[in-house]
Structures are given as structure tokens and as C-alpha cells.
Amino acid sequence: MDHWALVTLGASIVMVLGPVVWILLRGELQRFFPYVVAASSFFLLNLVGSASPAVSRLAVGVGFHLMFASTAATLLLSYLVVKHRATRSERPALPVRLEESLRGTGRGCRRFLAAGVVCSILAMAAFWVWVTPPFFVRRPVTASREKVLQEIPSPEAPAQQVPAELKSKRLVSGPVFGPVGSLIDARIAVVASRPFHWFALAAFEIPLFIVALAATAIPIARLVGARESFNWKATFAAVLALALPASLWILSKQYLLYILAAVTLVALVHKGRIDWKIFTAFAASALVALGTLYAIYLRGTPTGYARALARTLWHRIVEVSPLGTAVAYKLFPDVIPFLGGRSLINPFRLLPYQQVSTANLVYPYVYGQGGGSIPLPAVVECYVNWGWWGVLAANIVVFILVAGVTRLCWTRDLWLFAVSCYLTMKLLLLWQMPLWFGTLEPTLVLLVGILVTCGLVLRNRHSSIGEKREGGTQACPPGPVE
Fold first, then answer.
1. pLDDT digits over 325-339, tens only?
2. C-alpha–C-alpha distance, residues 12 and 63, integer Å
3. Is the peptide bond before 352 cis (omega within 30 degrees of 0)?
4. Is the alpha carbon torsion for 33, 279, 422, 68 positive or negative?
5. If we measure between CA atoms, which residue out of 321, 329, 315, 322 comes closest to residue 60?
6. What's the predicted TM-score (pTM) here?
7. For residue 482, what are the contacts with CB-CB under 8 A and spacing of at least 6?
């Protein structure tokens, strides 16, 4: 890594972690937790891996680090803007803000949650019958990975123009579990099927939201009364009993970790600080879950399993996104021209282009064999489409999302606060995959619209009932005093 690249990376780290440390020292986690999660995850998923030996071997130069530096500056700007608004409008502590909402809309929230549970169960039953049963119930049928991956072709890279650094057989060093085996092939085929997106909406995303809502309500319900506290604890236990098996439908790591992370996030927000007991419990639970799932993928625990698992987790969490970014930066536009939007979703092929997959293109350069995909972060995917203008546009979207979700968490409405917690979890996708496959995926945007609409309905209904009560009280004059 040359001098300017090191300086750029250091400046990015300061811009990202400086506000996070300031927020934690001032005890403002409840007011800025979406920003803290977004900035911390960007540091872990993108910046740390940028200094890894695998990325350094590619000699990407300062331009590679400038892409991440631009996002770091965007995050800093979003914090400064939101912080300016915060100083102008002070907000009370979280329980004080949400207690009144829980008293007025608590019963309505549970009714909406019941409707969400019914939708999830119906979707899972339909998926079981017409697509596939849960993988933990019956061994899945082996699918052809190559056939699935060929449905969305990759951009072509002329072999004679590929840089020498990318012609090595494998960029990843050390023991790393790859996506091999019939179970993973079957999972790729299921995820690529058209009904899966709607199934994921009902079986993964809705349970994730209702778990976040129930976890948010439990500490506040204690202030309302013992009966309300019992109702929300029972609700939380019921939705968690639904969400955990649903998250393991295709034995995927992502959905299970999201549920664990959502419960941890809500607990930390209620604490108003980083509680290391809660954080350690989450880390231990996540490690056990990941170790178990990888053992299922490999059908056992081979020699050196613990070491290989640690190396795999480092690679999959810290290294893979920067490494994919480095490969894309070396290929575009010197080897492959900018795509001009051809990697965007083309719903029902309505638009006059064939969608191509940069994730499938990057994979062979990183692992050197087999077929698979390494999604690029949102800013990088926009870069391979439109160059630095794409980076600018993506950072504008990042600013709007981070600042908007942070501003939303100041609400006094319980339901909308749970929406902000849910969206905070989805901010992590900005650093892992393109906008149109992650944070702004169409079915996800549809779900957020439905959730916000439900929240507004609950608020208006509560306001109408309150106005009627006040009107009824005013219409009855006090009786004579005896």
C-alpha cells in the first residue's frame, strides 16, 4: 500500500469512527443508533478489509480507497446534518417518548402483528407445497449451480487484457470454506426462483420486523402495567418461535443472524450504551449458530475445523467485499467498459437491455474455481455502471437513507420506531450488495411502504379515539354540586 493510499484509508477511518466514539462517550446512542450501526458496519465490512494482504497484492492504488473515502465523508456529513437538527429539537428519553404511544396503540399493534403472523404462516405453507419444504425437514434435491448462474450472464472480460495480478488461480489465502456441496447448490436454485422473493418477504422480513417491535415494546410495557408487560412478553415469545424456524428454511446464515442482531440492537438501544454482556451474548450465539451451519454444509467437522471456521468468518465478514471491490476496480473500465446501468434489475425484461451480473464476474478471480457470486457494495456497483458519477449518485442515496432512518428513530410512535430499528438492520446491506438487490430491493421497498401505512393508520385511529373522548367530556357539563 503506497503512502497516499494509506493516508486516504486513515482519513476514512477517522471520519467514520470519530462521530461513533463521540456519540458513545456522550451517551447519545438512543438518538443516533442508526448512524452508529451504519458507520460501524461500514468500518467492519469495507474499511478493515481494505488493508488486508489479499487486497494489497492487487496494487489497486489510491483510487480504490477514494471510493470508500467518499462514502466515509458522506456518513460524516449525514451525522453533522442530523446532529444540527438534534440540537434544535431536544427529545426526551426513549421510554418517555414511547409510553404514551404504547398505551394508545398497543392493542392495535398486536392485532397487526397477528395479521403478519397469519400471512407468514400462509406463505410458508404455500412455499412448502409448491416450491420446497424446509431443508431441515427433508434433504433438498441437488440443483445445477451453473444452470442457475447462467440465467443472468456476466460481462465478458478479454483474457489478454486482464491484469497479471488477477490471473493467479486464487486471491484468497488460507483455509476458507467455499460454497460447495449439493445443499448449497439447492439453496442457490431456491433463491433464484421467482416465488422466493415473495416468500422471503413473508417468512423472513415480516417476522424480523415483528420481533423488533415486540422486543422494543417489552421494556416500555413494564411502565404501563403488569398485564401489558405479560401480553408483550407472550407476543415476543410467540413471534420468536415463528421467526427462528422460518429463518432456517433454507439453512441460510443471514436471516438467523439478522434476528439475533435485531434483538441485540433493541436491547442496547434501551440500555442507551454498549453493554458488553449483551454484546458478548450475541457474539457467542452467532458463533455457535455459524459453526453449526457450516458443519451442516460440510456434513461434519473435518480436521482443523476451528481454524478454518475462524479464517472463513474473517474472510466472509471482513475481506470479501473489499476484495470484490478491488477486482471490480481493476477490471472497470480498463478491461470492461462501464456497464451504463445494465446490471440493474430488469423486471419482466420490460427495459431494452439484458441484465448482467457483476457478482458472477468477480467470483472466479477471487476463488479461482467453480461458480458463484460476490455481490459488490452499493457504491461500487454504481461505479461499474457509471464511473465516478455513479459513486456520487450512490453516496447521495446513502446520505438520504442514513440521515432519514436516524431522523425516523426520534419518533414518539412505537410502530414507527420499530420500523426505524428494522431499517437500521437493512442499512448493513449498503456495504454488502447493490442498492436494487439490498436496501432498495423492490419487495423490501413495498414492505416498508406497507409498514409505514399501518403505522399511520394506527396513529390516526388513536388520535380519532382521543378526540372523541375529549369531545364527549366537553359536551357533558358538570353536574350540580351538592
1. 999 999 999 889 999
2. 13
3. no
4. positive
5. 329
6. 0.91
7. none
